[in-house]
Amino acid sequence: MHQIEQILQTSIDDEEYELKTLPYRQTMTYYRCALREIETKFRVLDEQFSMYYDRNPIEIIESRIKSQASVLRKLKRRGIPTTIEAMESNLFDIAGIRIISSFQDDIYMLADLLLQQDDVRLIQRKDYIKHPKPNGYRSLHLIVELPIFLANEKKWVKVEVQFRTLAMDLWASLEHKLRYKKDLPQERLDEISHDLLECALICASLDKKMGELRKSEKRNPIVHP
């Protein structure tokens, strides 16, 4: 068992630093490699749509690896042992990638195309678009597992994939900035929550309207003289 807390407390000046931190650094390398693999999959799909359909279903791709401190806090908060083995078994969002599209239909199309690939396993699916969170948050979350090929083994690694439209992503970004102003009185925080929910409904209405316009354009293409 490799204790993450002990690894993080190891001094960089310690002569055994490289040896003591190797298990954690190696594990995080696996997550980084898995992120590269899944990002490549989406970029290939985007290229294919650009070539054959003259459009790009993906507007933005963002990825991140949880920091060491964030991993440790989450394990402690959940009462999970602070070992690398427990981290791999219980935390599914250490590696995360966000796919941002213009249209809601593209979200489900991209998710289906990803899951059709024979080296991608679906571990968990949470659809906050069809079933928004009480605060108004909308997104499609998938936990998938895919293999990375090492020198002498194949290792399956979990990655969280979030799909959002541009409107969903704008709302989520601003909600995070506004909601976490802890120095405001509770009455004002309640007002902000109410207004944010109203904004979420407006964003959802915008996504719906833009999707309808897109479908209408397909049914009634512009004919040039």
List the helices and strands and how they pair.
Elements: H1 4-8, H2 17-53, E1 60-65, H3 68-77, H4 84-90, E2 95-101, H5 104-115, E3 121-127, E4 140-149, E5 154-165, H6 166-179, H7 186-219
Parallel strand pairs: 2-5
Antiparallel strand pairs: 1-2, 3-4, 4-5
Helix pairs in contact: 6-7
Summing up helix and strand content along with how strands pair, one would put the structural category as alpha+beta
- First CA to last CA: what distance? 72 Å
Number of strands: 5
CATH class equals Alpha Beta
CATH architecture term:
2-Layer Sandwich
Radius of gyration from CA coordinates: 21 Å
> Please, how many domains?
1
CATH fold type: Beta Polymerase, domain 2
Shape: flat
Commentary on this structure:
The protein has about 220 residues and is α+β, with helices and mostly antiparallel strands. The chain has a single domain, classed as Beta Polymerase, domain 2, CATH 3.30.460.10. Helix content is about 55%, strand content about 20%. The protein has helices spanning about 5-10, 15-55, 70-75, 85-90, 105-115, 165-180, 185-220, and strands at about 60-65, 95-100, 120-125, 140-150, 155-165. Strands 1-2-5-4-3 form a five-stranded mixed sheet. Strand 4 (about 140-150) and strand 5 (about 155-165) form a beta hairpin. The longest helix is centred in the first third of the chain and has 37 residues, at about 15-55. The model is unreliable at about 220-225 (pLDDT under 50).
